[in-house]
Amino acid sequence: MEPFQVHALIQVSSLVFLLLGVYYARNHNLRRHHAFIYIALGLLTAGVVYTLYTIGGAPSTHGRVGLFVYVYTLFVAFSGRAFLGGKVKRKHHRLPGGTAILLLVLQTLFALYSYVL
């Protein structure tokens, strides 16, 4: 299996876990929401670290945008921690969360367009 295929498999798996986390947040099952979000963040981190190690950096536009999306997703996770602490309102956590999911989907589509098609 090629390194980019491993990266793609890890990142798409993390996107699925994030979507499951959103589903459980909407159903007010916070225990499962947090479990799926933490699994997704772990997979995102593993995929980014694996790719940076294998390729040796982010030479392409997809890689640079992907690093931004990764950092933004971590920001959203920290805003979730602030939401639990009562420092951030629900709407100020939902909007960046939805944006992070949208960015991950667009990044996946960009990768399919750039490297597969």
- Would you list the SSEs in sequence order as H and E? HHHH
Shape: elongated
**How many distinct beta strands?**
0
Q: Output the structural class.
A: mainly alpha
Largest sheet: none
What proportion of the residues is helical, as a percent range?
A: over 70%
Low-pLDDT segments, ≥5 res: none
Number of helices: 4
Give me the Rg, rounded. 15 Å
Mean pLDDT: 91
The tally of structural domains comes to 1
Q: Report strand %.
A: under 5%
Q: Separation of termini?
A: 18 Å
What features would you describe in this structure?
With 117 residues, the protein is mainly α. The chain has one domain. The protein has helices spanning 3-26, 30-55, 61-84, 90-116. The longest helix is centred in the C-terminal third of the chain and has 27 residues, at 90-116. The two termini are 18 Å apart.
Concise overview:
This protein is an all-alpha fold and about 120 residues long. Helix content is about 85%, strand content about 0%.
